[in-house]
Amino acid sequence: MTDPTPTAPRRRRPWLLAAGFAPLALAGTLVLASCSTTADPATGTTTTTDETVSLAAAAAVDPGATAAEVMADNEAAPGEDGDDTWTESDVVDVALSGTGATADSDVVTSADGTVTITEPGTYRLSGDLDGGVVVDTAADGLVRLILDGADIRNPDGAAIAITAAERAQVVLADGSDNLLSDTTSYADGADVNAALWSAADLVIAGTGSLTVDGNGNDGIASKDGLRITGGEITVDAVDDGIRGKDEVQVDGGTLSITAGGDGIKADDTEDAERGWIAIAGGDVTVVAGGDGLDAETDVVVWGGTLDVTAGGGSGASVADDASAKGLKGGVYAVVDGGTVTVDAAEDAIHADNTAHLANGETALAAGDDGVHADVALTVSGGTLDVTTSHEGLEAAAIVISGGATSVVASDDGVNASAGDVASSAEPTLTVSGGTLAVDADGDGIDVNGSITMTGGTVTVQGPTNDGNGALDYDGTFDISGGTVVAAGSSGMAMAPGADAAQASVLVTLASTAQAGSTLRLVAADGTVVATVPVTKATTSLAVSAPSLVNGETYTVTSGGTSLGSAVAGEQVSMGMPGGGGGPGGGGQPPARG
After folding, report:
1. Engineered SS bond to 505: which of 245, 276, 520, 568, CB 3.0-4.6 Å?
2. What is the pTM of this model?
3. pLDDT at position 424, please?
């Protein structure tokens, strides 16, 4: 896809309220659970208290925003043309040794274990230092630190602290191995609190290797933006692995991050153009005790490979006051390319507003939801494979318009529900293309509102218990195109609406079709309309396909034996619509961190 990296700062998002980054509304008035704000539903205004935050319908944005569209509203990542080139004659060599250093420049000084650089320029650091390097300059220009066999261990603070500079770059020299290690503790409230710390925009480039031991807090941190374009970087931190307050972007290199807290974090809460994380390239592996990627605004992936384990993985438990999500965005979570693999104790992908799977290959294992968005979730392309989850896909408004999606869930496979959101708009599921395959122990598809389908293919291997259904909707199921095949239990079985443009049939089986058997839906003239291998005990089959005709009789057979017949269009439900548990039918998800 086209590189969506913004080249200049763009406009502030108009739909983010001054009171904070509230979720967007799709229609009506949206109220979202919160711990710090309350809202007046009549006016859409917010006050800082402790319950909810609200937005009026006028604040709606496109729930199918691509990576390019999301990034167009974000501040540009650090880095300027020409930063990756320099003249060798301008390089100042800094030889580190013991608790000091020597250099042929009076802007490099050394005292009491601290090497200080006071002017912009290019500095090559090599050797071992039992202390720290400080960059402190008020002058305009780039400070470039070339690490070329540098081993810097500071028992009293940061290994490298860029306390003042217009902008900074750390270059990992080709073929070099470098190490940065900091103190085991920082004072409460300390500003400098990472092994590699910068007050300015920071870019890490080059092809060498860098090992960062964040013994006292974070591994690599910038109070502004942080960009990584190359290198083989290994970070092990007691708290966050890599943190850029304004933003973090990875364009290349190989990153291996182990963190007691969050793996990669952007936490600017003051500017809507900031607080984002982007993976544009490279090979990134994150093992985090907290969230894998935690962005105050957006998490956007459009290239490279990203492998995240959060909170010990999908089989682990999480404390009530902890968060262990794979990719977490306060506004957007977008995958628009690349390869993403997540194993998370909570949601694998989570957005407080909108999630969009537009392209790429995504494989998710989750202790809670595979993909969760408080407001809108769109799958428009790529492959999405949720191998383990409590609920596979969850949002108030879900759209499947393309791609190949498969979901395995211990509760509902697809759940369109308000959840923590109270809205005048009913939850919806819209399917217009792509394929969706669901294997669920609860409801296969549970919509606490209405379903609209105009294309695509939906197959459901639903529940075996009669308290749930392969299809469960509270409103209407209007289908005018595409194919639906839903196998499951019969107690709460449903089919698309009898008055829909496309015909449907719901057949209750006279005897249970066991796992491994193949069901065939056969028309009166012997035409096989659908062939359905079932993976679990099945007592009902719902089918909607363009070839079905209302008023015609269809029979389900297995091994040549008739198991039951029904007339298309005559029966929508074996139980009350929405009877599979009502809102959140089939059970409640575990508590969220």
Report:
1. 568
2. 0.89
3. 65
